[in-house]
Amino acid sequence: MTANxxxxxxxDGPASAGKSTIAKILAHNFQYVYVDTGSMYxxxxxxxxxxxxxxxxxxxxxxxxxxLQITFQPGTPLQRVFLNGxxxxxxxxxxxxxxxxxxxxxxxxxxxxxxxxxxxxxxQHSVVMDGRDIGTTVLPHAQVKIYLVASVxxxxxxxxxxxxxQGIDVDLATLTKDIxxxxxxxxxxxxxxxxxxxxxxxxxxxSKSIDQVVSEITNIILKKQQNHPVK
Length: 231
Ligand code: DC
Hints:
- The protein is of the alpha/beta class.
- It is built from ten helices and eight strands.
- It has a five-stranded parallel beta sheet, sandwiched between helices. Strands 3-4-5 form a three-stranded antiparallel beta sheet, covered by helices on one side.
- A hairpin with a 2-residue loop joins β4 (80-83) and β5 (86-87).
- α8 packs across α9 (172-188).
- The protein starts with 7 loop residues before the first strand and ends with a helix.
- It binds 2'-deoxycytidine-5'-monophosphate.
């Protein structure tokens, strides 16, 4: 059915549905490479901010792209992210970046640039890749596609707790509004909007433990692998 040389697990869904937590554990358990594509969009947004560019200036942001090297290293609780060799793991999660990344992620030149990078990684390794358009656009032949959802209230609570752990102080009402706004922007942009792929399996993480969700998705993956042996 697929021409993939490696196994591909695509995990999409709205902000704070639990994608990166779940994807990281699955990648560890299956010994696949974890690719957090949201952090790539965040890193470009940070580079634009540091260069003093307006987030609306697609042309100027596009000019930065050829000089940006985004790399990952394993880390806990977050995968470590580097921009041209300098660690930006925490910097890309600050509210300034979180609140502007949807605008930068909507630019065709930015998406095209990252699409190439993401496919390059998947051509070389079996991956668990999480984002918004992995099952629909980046890896349309992924053997497993999961669409992870959770209620807005629970997602806001999760982001609130994550923020506290990182010393970021934003109240729950603001986070709820931010999440709703980001969902809207991610779902309504012209290019590769957040949407469930026709062949994706929806998993609702509301009121479920991380272990429960991991085991549910692991069963889906193992079933697939019985039918399509992995290289
Ligand atoms: O998952 P996250 O919150 O780190 O994602 C940050 C933003 O990046 C999100 O608002 C939308 C964008 N994004 C995207 O457009 N496509 C992806 N594959 C991943 C993230």
